[in-house]
Amino acid sequence: MFHAFFFVPVIVFLVIVAPIWLVLHYVTRWRASRTLSREDERMLVDLWESAKRMELRIQTLEKILDAEAPQWRRPAP
Q1: What is the percent of the chain where pLDDT is above 70?
Q2: How far apart are CA 58 and CA 62, in angstroms?
Q3: Which one, of 8, 31, 11, lies nearest residue 19 by Cα?
Q4: What are phi and psi of 37, to 5 degrees?
Q5: Distance between alpha carbon 51 and the CA centroid of its chain, in Å?
Q6: Can you tell me where the transmembrane regions are (predicted)?
Q7: How do residues 37-67 score in pLDDT, each as one tens digit?
Q8: 45-75 burial, b for 16+ CB within 10 Å, e for fewer?
Q9: What is the DSSP letter of 13?
Q10: With contact defined as beta carbons under 8 Å apart, do 45 and 53 qualify?
Q11: Taking the C-alpha atoms of 60, 63, 64 and 66 in order, what is their torsion angle to the nearest 10 degrees?
Q12: What residues have CB less than 8 Å from 38, skipping those under 6 apart?
């Protein structure tokens, strides 16, 4: 009798509550992972600024090379 008293609620929990709980847990995790955290947003801004600075440096280097070695853009034979 003692086993039946605990057996039925455990089965009900495993069949009804646990699957719903798991689904809701992972849906919440999935939604949270779709958004960027503040740290991720900051890193994205830093990367964007770094890319802009690198682009300016490349343009400057190309201008210097165009002035000093105009043939640098020609493909090698």
Answers
A1: 96
A2: 6
A3: 11
A4: -75, 170
A5: 18
A6: 6-28
A7: 889 899 999 999 999 999 999 999 999 999 9
A8: eeeeeeeeeeeeeeeeeeeeeeeeeeeeeee
A9: I
A10: no
A11: 160
A12: none
Angstrom distance (rounded) from CA 71 to CA 69: 6
Is residue 30 left, alpha or beta, with left meaning phi > 0 and alpha meaning psi from -120 to 50?
alpha
DSSP string, 32-64: HHHSPPHHHHHHHHHHHHHHHHHHHHHHHHHHH
Phi, psi for residue 71 in degrees, rounded to 5: -85, 0
Cα dihedral sign for 49, 51, 55, 57? positive
Amino acid at 64: I
Position 1 scores a pLDDT of: 62
